[in-house]
Amino acid sequence: MKIATWNVNSINARLHAVTKWLKTANPDIVCLQETKTIDEAFPREEIESLGYNLAIHGQKSYNGVAILSKRPFEEVISGLPGDDNDEQARYLEAVIMGDNGPVRVATIYLPNGNPVIHGEAFSQKYLYKLTWMARLKARAQSLLPFEEPLILAGDYNVIPEAKDTHDPIGWEGDAAFRPETHKAFREILNLGFTEAFEMLDGRAEQYTFWDYQGGAWPRNKGIRIDHLVLSPQAADRIRGLTIDRDVREGVKPSDHVPVIGVFDL
DNA sequence: ATGACCGATTGCATCGGA
After folding, report:
1. What pLDDT score was predicted for residue A205?
2. For position A212, what pLDDT does the model report?
């Protein structure tokens, strides 16, 4: 089973690129982020006609997540628990029947958090990021006792290590590379989760995002911020991981590329 | 960080993104 994550930076602006990629990569489950549209304007038919069931959790203009699945959904949960007043559409979870039992997948669009500082203190944006990460940790912890294959897939806006950026000095102080961010990310992994790329590959300079500005793509000035975070039962079943780098070269590309895990599930 | 960015919005500039 191929399970992928991709921040598409608007599903409507990216519809051609997405459908083309679905046909060639042929993933079983896809976690999308930054769909940037209300559910009524999501291009449902175009994606369903390729054989996918669709779970969407969108909002106007910003954020928005979705899960595509060739198999039907057993269960869908919209929104990250822990704050009823949070109106940002950044989390969606679904259960799909695999060959050997249920598989739980979440699509995650973790807040950017910049600018980090406002005046003398942390900004509201950065505090929101850290709070959101604490909520994600709580959700992840509450799901562990199920002992299911669980894949937390998404745009984490976290650069795990210096080798995951072209310019560690330049990124120092950025919300994606702060010590507090690293601690919050590590706390989730320390519950017993595994970051798939770290386990299976671990090479330097394997980026998933290149800014549209400054010739970042032709100069390969990227960062690795899109991750598959796996429960023990998922980590034991993953057979390979690919970063679909070539997608960044296409017509009207997203600034992120897909990350695909192949699982025996 | 930013060569000459990109997307959404009742828009003709501003905001958010990483």
Report:
1. 96
2. 95
Domains of chain A and any CATH numbers: 2-263 (3.60.10.10)
At which residue do the structure tokens 């989390």 appear?
Answer: A91
Distance CA A157, CA A137 (A): 15
In this complex, which residue's CA is closest to the C1' atom of nucleotide B1? Answer: A170
Q: Write down the pTM of the prediction.
A: 0.97
Beta bridge partners of A68: A30, A54
Cis peptide before A115 (omega within 30 of 0): yes
CA A62, C1' B12: Å apart? 22
C-alpha–C-alpha distance, residues A22 and A26, integer Å: 5
Q: How many Å does it take to go from CA A60 to C1' B12?
A: 21
How many residues are given for chain A? 265
| Number of Cβ atoms within 10 Å of the Cβ of A73 | 15
d(CA A64, CA A85): 16
State the nucleotide closest to A114 in CA–C1' terms: B18
Residue numbers of chain A with a pLDDT score lower than 50: none
pLDDT tens-digit readout, A36-66 = 999 999 999 999 999 999 999 999 999 999 9
As a whole number of angstroms, the distance between CA A212 and CA A53 comes to: 31
Task: Report the protein residue whose CA lies nearest the C1' of nucleotide B7.
Answer: A10
Residue ranges near strand B (C-beta within 7 Å):
A 7, 9-10, 12-14, 34, 36-37, 60-62, 111-112, 114, 125, 155, 157, 167, 170-174, 176, 209, 211-216, 218-219, 221, 223, 225, 252, 255
